[in-house]
Amino acid sequence: MIHSLQQKLKLVLVIFLLTLCTCLILGMQLKTVYQVEFDGKKLGYISEMNLLKKWGQEQSSIVQFKYPDAELVSNQALFKIKSVKRFFTKAQDEKVEQEFNQRFIVESSGYTIQVDGEVVGVVANKEMAELILQKIKNNFSVRNQSMEVTSLSWKKEQQQYKTVTYKSVQFVENVIVSTVKTDPALLSNPEEVIKKLKGEDIKRTSYTVKEGDCVSCIAQDFNVSQEVIYSNNPWIQDDFIAIGDKLDLTISKPKLSVKTTEEYTERLQVPSGVKIIYDNSMRVGRSKVLDQGKPGMKKITYLRTKINGKLIDEKVVKSEIQQKAVPKKVLQGAKIIKGIGSGVFDWPIIDPTVTSQFGKRWGRFHAGTDSVSSNRTIYAADSGKVIYAGFTSDYGNHVIIDHQNGYQTLYAHMSKINTKKGSLVEKGDTIGIMGTTGRSTGVHLHFEIRNKDNEKINPLTFLNE
Known about the structure:
Layout: H1 2-29, E1 30-38, E2 41-46, H2 51-66, E3 72-74, E4 79-87, H3 93-103, E5 106-115, E6 118-123, H4 126-138, E7 147-151, E8 159-171, E9 175-182, H5 190-198, E10 206-208, H6 215-221, H7 226-232, E11 246-248, E12 258-270, E13 274-279, E14 287-291, E15 296-307, E16 310-323, E17 328-333, E18 353-356, E19 359-361, E20 364-366, E21 369-372, E22 377-379, E23 384-392, E24 396-402, E25 408-417, E26 424-425, E27 430-434, E28 445-450, E29 456-457
Parallel strand pairs: 13-17
Antiparallel strand pairs: 1-2, 1-4, 3-5, 5-6, 5-9, 7-8, 8-12, 10-11, 12-15, 14-17, 15-16, 18-21, 19-20, 21-28, 22-27, 23-24, 23-26, 24-25, 25-27, 25-28, 28-29
Helix pairs in contact: 2-3, 4-5
């Protein structure tokens, strides 16, 4: 009985020991691993929880190094990880890393620049997009350059100051900047975007001048305007080109145009003019200076509208005499002699609107004032003698009056001439009708004033208000 009890106890002890050993062995095989899932699919087990984050950072760093300005986003959040305990399970770090790399995506949060619905480029961030657009605007508005020097005459013997104040700077087209997810490799180079917006990404067209060529002939042959030729080749002076010269005939077509409205003010010296006092007691041809006179000062303010720097509209909004000119007084013998000017000029058209003023235009000098009026009759600005009344390819039908006091005036692009060479005209006499003959882009009057040295002088310094 006792012996049977001892055997039972031994059996229980053996079973306990076997169970204990089994538990110890199984406990040694139970491990904590980290299960990785992507979009609900199990990818495997990894040994450390931070491996997933580490792999994502490595991939993002590679892309960020290649595209330092890009704002990167990834799909890291789609990878799920959880801690689990498993018997006889080994981590699969290498396998899971491969699976991770195949599914891990790094994208850039880019910004598109659209012009009238067309995507011109995608840049790395909003600041870059705004900087590009500002650079385009800055090409045509230099706000910090308020004082410049202009001249009264072509030779710049008398210099006065002018000021430019920008009232508005805006794009003509509709411009939209919006966010988009994109491959960083597809981000645009900012300089290339600027070139595209300015129309500088096109292939250049060049031409070598041959015998018999002229600017207007080349313009006609290549179907480009003469303005394009002058603008692209500012070295051309007085239409002179030589055999072998290289001309740039590229027509730039910017996708984005800048419209500026500016208030332009200049102070100009007003010539004193000449006041003739006739003395019947003095012999014909004799004269005497009674007073040398004194020049005055005039302040003129224009409102100018430009698109891409090209003047499309210009109006005189204010003109004031700051100092009146005192005319030179000359006592002249004999009776009043027809055809001698006073030196004081009236507008040659009624109610004029200035469309282009005297000075530099697109790299060339504009030697007069262009103006239009609903009344197309052209009048002599002062008394004088007509020394030319005919046609040339540049001025078209035009008249030149010598006022026999050191000044001449020119009236260009007429549709009809109502005077002839040798005629003596008085101030206000009709001499022609406004037109668009010669080198002209529309009906207007091109008006010039020249002094005794044949210098072209700003007409607005002479014209009566």
